[in-house]
């Protein structure tokens, strides 16, 4: 299991871009990087997944450098409703045991 | 499409009783995962099932805990003779196949409280 390290918490203001970086030094060749969002009293919600370079969808972008030992989740123009815990996971191609660390608690202020 | 459905949302049991948590996966999904979450912590993997088979139960305590996913009906996580330390949120997730690069879709959990 490739463990991940991410900041415990971050503060931001509405309208700003937020970048959350995750370290995963022991990532294996077959591993993917996946991000989930969790609100209080709800289950985690899939945000984005990538293997290398850059992936973008309607809610976020994921930047992965060539060595893949880290990744950055970018949330453009956050709003108050983006206040949540964000989890970075490294998951293997044949490996379905997702390891959730403590996540990053993002607090968006008005 | 209905997402992953878990019930009950809240369950209160006294020490020594049994708790049964149910999970209906998303339509078309045959892979189910159970996780446990304590306050202010991340989710901890418990067990992975694929219709009628337990694939990986390495995260589930060997005593008092069991899980099943029958051919018909929801997946059940069963905790016998509950103790205070079993109080937690239990989440179920499902996926279309068992590969790690397939997103798991989560339900909103069952919050178990032990009196």
Structure description:
The complex is a heterodimer of chains A (110) and B (115). Chain A is globular and about 40 Å long. Chain A contains no helices and 9 strands. In chain A, the strands form 2 sheets. Chain A has a 5-stranded mixed β-sheet with strand order 1-9-8-3-4, with no helix packed on it. A 4-stranded antiparallel β-sheet of chain A has the order 2-7-6-5, with no helix packed on it. The N and C termini of chain A lie far apart (38 Å). Chain A is an all-beta fold and 110 residues long. By secondary structure, chain B is mainly β. Chain B has strands at residues 5-7, 10-13, 19-24, 31-37, 43-50, 53-56, 65-68, 75-79, 88-95, 105-106, 110-114. In chain B, strands 2, 4, 5, 6, 9, 10 and 11 form a 7-stranded mixed β-sheet that branches. The model of chain B has no long low-confidence stretch (mean pLDDT 93). Classes of the chains: A mainly beta (110), B mainly beta (115). At the A-B interface, strand 4 of A face strand 4, strand 5, strand 9 and strand 10 of B.
List the helices and strands and how they pair.
The complex is a heterodimer of chains A (110) and B (115).
Chain A: E1 9-13, E2 18-23, E3 32-38, E4 45-50, E5 53-56, E6 61-64, E7 70-75, E8 84-91, E9 104-109
Parallel strand pairs in A: 1-9
Antiparallel strand pairs in A: 2-7, 3-4, 3-8, 5-6, 6-7, 8-9
Chain B: E1 5-7, E2 10-13, E3 19-24, E4 31-37, E5 43-50, E6 53-56, E7 65-68, E8 75-79, E9 88-95, E10 105-106, E11 110-114
Parallel strand pairs in B: 2-11
Antiparallel strand pairs in B: 1-3, 3-8, 4-5, 4-9, 5-6, 7-8, 9-10, 9-11
Descriptive labels:
heterodimer, A: 110 residues, mainly beta, five-stranded mixed sheet, four-stranded antiparallel sheet, 9 strands, 0% helix, globular, B: 115 residues, seven-stranded mixed sheet, 11 strands, 49% strand
β-strand number of chain A: 9
Helical segment tally of chain A? 0
Helix fraction of chain A, binned, reads under 10%
In terms of per-residue confidence, which ranges of chain A show pLDDT below 50 for 5 or more consecutive residues?
none
**Helical amount of chain B:** under 10%
Described by its quaternary structure, the protein is heterodimer
> How would you sum up the major sheet of chain A?
5 strands, mixed
Class by alpha and beta content of chain A? mainly beta
Query: Which regions of chain B contain 5 or more consecutive residues with pLDDT less than 50?
Result: none
